[in-house]
Structure formats: structure tokens, C-alpha cells
Design goal:
Elements: H1 7-14, H2 20-27, H3 31-38, H4 40-46, E1 60-67, E2 81-84, E3 97-98, E4 115-120, E5 123-127, E6 135-136, E7 138-142, E8 147-150, E9 154-155, E10 168-172, E11 195-201, E12 208-214, E13 222-224, E14 238-239, E15 243-245, E16 249-255, E17 259-265, E18 271-277, E19 284-292, E20 298-304, E21 309-315, E22 325-335, H5 344-347, E23 350-355, E24 358-362, E25 368-372, E26 378-380, E27 395-401, H6 402-409
Parallel strand pairs: 18-22
Antiparallel strand pairs: 1-2, 1-27, 2-3, 4-5, 5-7, 6-9, 7-8, 10-11, 11-12, 12-13, 14-16, 15-16, 16-17, 17-18, 19-20, 20-21, 21-22, 23-24, 24-25, 25-26
Length: 437
């Protein structure tokens, strides 16, 4: 039937497909559809990039949150489900997908039981299943290029088997880490460069060491910072997901008996920390969430103790460059519009994460919701796995250039070189890809 339709009619049909995997399957049906889907003008129409080109409206669009499914254990593929966010290219919020379905099929055995630790522009940092308390085995999986790099083992003497809570992780691209003296790099799907940052705890959880790994030629090895973070951290605290400001800094929020902002400077490579002082008698519940304001400055989102409002806090004017501690003030309040009947106070809401104006929260019944930051509207995420004790480190945002992902799955553009970072199975390849169904 498609043969009898003109191209413009087919394009109007294809652009209306809600889900990226459905579009990929259509493109694989015949050469004509494949040619139409792979055309740059169609991809630009399907996934438009507005003129402002900010972090939330670039080709690396927010796709949803990766949910850690504790019920599944580590026996089948990469652990976790991708829960699409509002207006995600993957389609309606109600359709969850196994994270392993996006992974290159050639690495299924290697990545079996792997746990996602961090993501950036379609690149995932994974902890492999054979890690233990003393040695961590990591891999970097590029979903766009269909490649996987196994990193050299890293010795981390953690006091816990699962260090997702006790350590901080980040993976950066060449856009985030431009070479010294070079102009900023535009987002690219062809670059093979990545940089891994880890703040690792020791057995006593009283001091933290900073580790970096760079894939750049001549630097492909772990490096430990000589300056340890001595913050007096303890077992009741945890790190947030990383907040990256390209070309400037990577930030983590440590929440414990006190709040600390930990900053990695992209230019100097120096790591510092600042204690955050909240307004007197301020009452928030759960852990605050570190985000970026519209003007690019740091801000905190914190659920008010009453559970009906979301507070916005920023650094006190004049203290943006404070080195040891800084005062923060509440500058805004968002009234929450809860779904259905009931009282938000009884729900016991707390924040799990945020990305591009979409806030992920849970209630005391372990139900999960999306909140639109602009409107305060809440929507239940019914496909979130109902685990007991859902915590912030059980979720992680994912952003992806879906036009590049679609092209890579069609085999139109591949990388030309295969490389091997370490002497284990997991050599970089770009010819085999996982399915997207």
C-alpha cells in the first residue's frame, strides 16, 4: 500500500508516530521508508531543535528516568527500566522499557547484571556484575554509536556492596571538557571521547577520594586526586546525581546532617566543597534537589514540610563565590496540583530527581509522580516498579539524541575504528546493535 502513496503523504504519516522504536521498525520495512526516515530534513521535523538550543531543547532531549527495579535482581541484562517522561520521544508515560533493549546486542553477556551509575547525552556509565567491595569494574556504553568500553579496574575500599548511594559518579563528553585554549565544542554524535569522575568513599566514610578517567590518547588510565575531601560525612548521607554545566563545572549535592555542594572545575581540575546554610527555622522534608535556574545559576528544590508546596532556594546575593560556606534563601513557592482526591500532606511527598523542568517525586505509599515545574501539575507514573523503600539513588535521568539513535539503528552511520581499552571482552564495535522493541 505504501508504494501507491506519494512521499509527502508517507512523511506526514511517519512524523505522527509517537514512539521512536515504532519509527525504526517502519524504516526497516523497505528501502523507500528507510530513505525517507533517514533524511535529515525529516529527522529535524520529527525532533526539532529550537533556536535557543538550551540544554533542555537540544537534540539531546530528555527521555525519562531510569528506574532501578529491585525485583528483577541482576540476572537478566542491564538492570533497570526506562520510564518515559512527559512528551518523550519514546511515547506515552505509561510505557516502560527494559534498559537492556537499548544496549548493543554484541555486549549482552558482558553487561549482564550491570548497574547504571550515570548518563550523559546517550552515554551510560555502568558498574559490571563482577564488582565487589574492593575492586570496581566499570564500562562506558555509547547507545548512539553502539560501542562499549571496559575500563581498567578501580580499587575502591567501600564499606558497602552497593555503593550507588555512598559514591558520586559523572560521565562527561568533549562538549563538557574542551581542551585548554580551545573554543567550546558543539554537541557531536561522532566523538569517541569521554571522561569519568568518581568520588569514592573509604571504609570509615570519613574521607573521600576523587578519581578521574579520560579516554583521550595518552591519558587512558585512572588518576587519583592528592586532595581528599574531608567533610566529616557519615552513613546517613548520600550524593545526588551530577549536575553538569558544560565547559564550567560538575556539581553534586551531599545531603546528610548538613548540606554540601561539591564542585569539580572543568578548567583547573580542582575539586572543592561548600557548606550550604539554610534559612533560619526553614522546614523542608526529604532531600533537596540541585537544579539549574533559567539564568543558569544553581538552585535547590525542596518539598515543604506541609507537603503542599515546593520551595525554590538560591544562594544569597553576594555569596555566589563563597569558598567555605554560603547562605541560601527561599525565593519562590510552587503550589502542587495533586491528581484525584486526597491530601498532599498525607502523601508524604519527597523529591527523587529533576531534569528539564520535570520533577520526579514519591509518596509515603511508594507511588511515584511527575511534577511539571512550571505549573505544579502532578501525574502518577503507573509503570514505575513498586519497590519497597524507593530512594533518590534508585532513579537517574536519561537524555538522548533520538534522531542519531534512529539513524544508528538503521546502520547508516557507524564509527570506523574499533578500539580496546582493557584486556577483557568488550572491544569497541559499531556494527552490532540491540533492538529497540
Amino acid at each position: 500500500m505504501a508504494d501507491s502513496l506519494p512521499d509527502d503523504v508517507l512523511l506526514d504519516i511517519l512524523v505522527r508516530l509517537e514512539e521512536a522504536p515504532d519509527l525504526s521498525r517502519c524504516a526497516m520495512a523497505c528501502k523507500r521508508l528507510r530513505s525517507l526516515v533517514a533524511d535529515p530534513s525529516f529527522l529535524g521535523r520529527r525532533w526539532p531543535w529550537p533556536a535557543d538550543q538550551d540544554a533542555c531543547h537540544s537534540p539531546f532531549s530528555f527521555s525519562g528516568f531510569i528506574a532501578r527495579d529491585k525485583r528483577r535482581g541482576r540476572s537478566e541484562g542491564v538492570t533497570g527500566l526506562l520510564i518515559p517522561g512527559p512528551r518523550s520521544a519514546l511515547g506515552p508515560v505509561c510505557r516502560a522499557r527494559a534498559l537492556g533493549s537499548f544496549m548493543p546486542a554484541a555486549y549482552a553477556s558482558l553487561l549482564n547484571g550491570a548497574v547504571p551509575l550515570a548518563s550523559r547525552h546517550g552515554i551510560l556509565l555502568l558498574r559490571l556484575a563482577d564488582s565487589d567491595r574492593t575492586v570496581v569494574h566499570l564500562a562506558v556504553c555509547n547507545l548512539l554509536a553502539g560501542t562499549c568500553d571496559v575500563l581498567p579496574p578501580l580499587k575502591l575500599r567501600s564499606a558497602y556492596d552497593d555503593d550507588r548511594e555512598w559514591c558520586a559518579y559523572a560521565i562527561l563528553t568533549d562538549e563538557d571538557c574542551p581542551c585548554q585554549g580551545q573554543p567550546p565544542v558543539l554537541p557531536s554524535n561522532n566523538s569517541s571521547f569521554f571522561k569519568v569522575l568518581i568520588i569514592g568513599s573509604n571504609e570509615h566514610l570519613m574521607r573521600y577520594s576523587f578519581y578521574t578517567f579520560s579516554s583521550r590518547k595518552g591519558k587512558a588510565s585512572w588518576r587519583a586526586s592528592k586532595n581528599c575531601l574531608r567533610i566529616g560525612l557519615h552513613a546517613n548521607g548520600s550524593f545526588s546525581d551530577v549536575l553538569v554545566r558544560p565547559g564550567m563545572a560538575a556539581h553534586w549535592l551531599y545531603s546528610g546532617s548538613s548540606l554540601y555542594l561539591i564542585t569539580f572545575n572543568m578548567h583547573s581540575g580542582h575539586t572543592s566543597y561548600t557548606k550550604l546554610n539554610m534559612p533560619m527555622n526553614y522546614e523542608g522534608t526529604g532531600r533537596p534537589c540541585l537544579t539549574l535556574a533559567v539564568d543558569g545559576t544553581l538552585q535547590l528544590l525542596w518539598m515543604h514540610k506541609a507537603g503542599r508546596q515546593l520551595d525554590i532556594l538560591v544562594q544569597h546575593p553576594g555569596q555566589q563565590y563563597a569558598s567555605t560556606s554560603s547562605a541560601w534563601v527561599c525565593t519562590g513557592v510552587i503550589d502542587l496540583k495533586q491528581p484525584g482526591e486526597g491530601d498532599t500532606e498525607e502523601r508524604g511527598l519527597s523529591i527523587l530527581g529533576e531534569k528539564c523542568g520535570t520533577i520526579l517525586v514519591k509518596d509515603s505509599r511508594q507511588h511515584v509522580y511527575y511534577i511539571e515545574l512550571e505549573t505544579g501539575t502532578m501525574e502518577e507514573v503507573v509503570e514505575w516498579p513498586h519497590n519497597s523503600g524507593i530512594m533518590p539513588w534508585d532513579s537517574m535521568p536519561l537524555e538522548m539524541d533520538w534522531s542519531a539513535f534512529c539513524i544508528s539503528r538503521l546502520g547508516i552511520r557507524t564509527t570506523s575504528k574499533s578500539r580496546k581499552r582493557h584486556g577483557r571482552k568488550g572491544t569497541r564495535k559499531s556494527t552490532d546493535h540491540g533492538n529497540t522493541s
